[in-house]
């Protein structure tokens, strides 16, 4: 259970010895969200006694998770010494397995990628993914000296559930995609990595990244869309990712929307996914490979992109309104594997389309851009070990599985 307050800040520290680990996490989560704070302010905001708060900060500093800044002078009294998270206090690895590409990122404690690897393929295979990890993982760990390598706390894996589905849309042979049926992704990766491995749905991991490293904690409750080869999503309630009974809550790609031109219904995944843009480019006789090779730079895709944005925005607006009717969230967040300028256009167009829909009886809802970008899934994957080891909400808030 998250102890975040209405403003997203952690609440409810305890002063008992048995809660030592919980209180450590509480302080780390507070500083991650709020930035530099002195000991007395940390105690006040967490509800810890001044003595307990001071002891926790000292302990975390000794564990190299915090560092002190230069004292700041106020109007009266002694100068206050702010504390912040150390960027090299811990590290994690984030692996994104997609239907068109794989990414591995080495993240520092602030969520900044220190090193990344990106590989595209016509379609994914278990053997190809294992080969990519075998090549990239030693290079990632090689970026750190021996002392810092001991601070790597785990590998998070973000992967679509039922990767064998949607073979025709990916363009993969049926036999190749069927090879994933029954594959335990965690068991596939774990022998290649000497660290604890955490597995999560890719869009849910991206939502976790938005909450842990981005601006999601400010929103509290929000619905999150990540537009990749296939659009997916997540739902954040009370500052924690809501996964539901079977871990499949927030499967927004399966949400029914009207078909293009007003027919329907059909699933959101068939109206707001990037594979549809790929198909449109192929129909024009153009090479679609740039959209997978570098999600940050697509170049001029012309009318095909304009049409895709209009259609995707129309569907996303419908899905957002439907989600708001169920969970009364005040915000929709849209991110994706595309350049920042495409994201901005898509968000603006979605907001315009929402304004034209019948919103009677619904609480106000706004749309904003995601704050991480094309790497949200790999960075969100890298957030999983940090959540498991240092965050107050813990990995249980994600439904992540450690192997």
Can you put this structure into words, describing what you see?
There is one protein chain. This protein is an alpha/beta fold and 403 residues long. It folds into 3 domains: 69 residues, Winged helix-like DNA-binding domain superfamily/Winged helix DNA-binding domain (Arc Repressor Mutant, subunit A); 138 residues, Nucleotidyltransferase, domain 5; 157 residues, Nucleotidyltransferase, domain 5. The protein is 38% helix and 19% strand. The protein is built from 15 helices and 16 strands. The strands form 4 sheets. A 6-stranded mixed sheet has the order 6-5-4-7-8-16, with helices on both faces. It has a 5-stranded mixed sheet with strand order 11-10-9-14-15, with helices on both faces. Strands 1-3-2 form a 3-stranded antiparallel sheet. α1 packs across α3, α9 packs across α15 and α13 crosses α14. It is globular, with a radius of gyration of 22 Å. The N terminus and C terminus are likely disordered.
Throw out a few tags for this protein.
disordered C terminus, six-stranded mixed beta sheet, Arc Repressor Mutant, subunit A, five-stranded mixed beta sheet, 403 residues, alpha/beta, disordered N terminus, Nucleotidyltransferase, domain 5, 15 helices
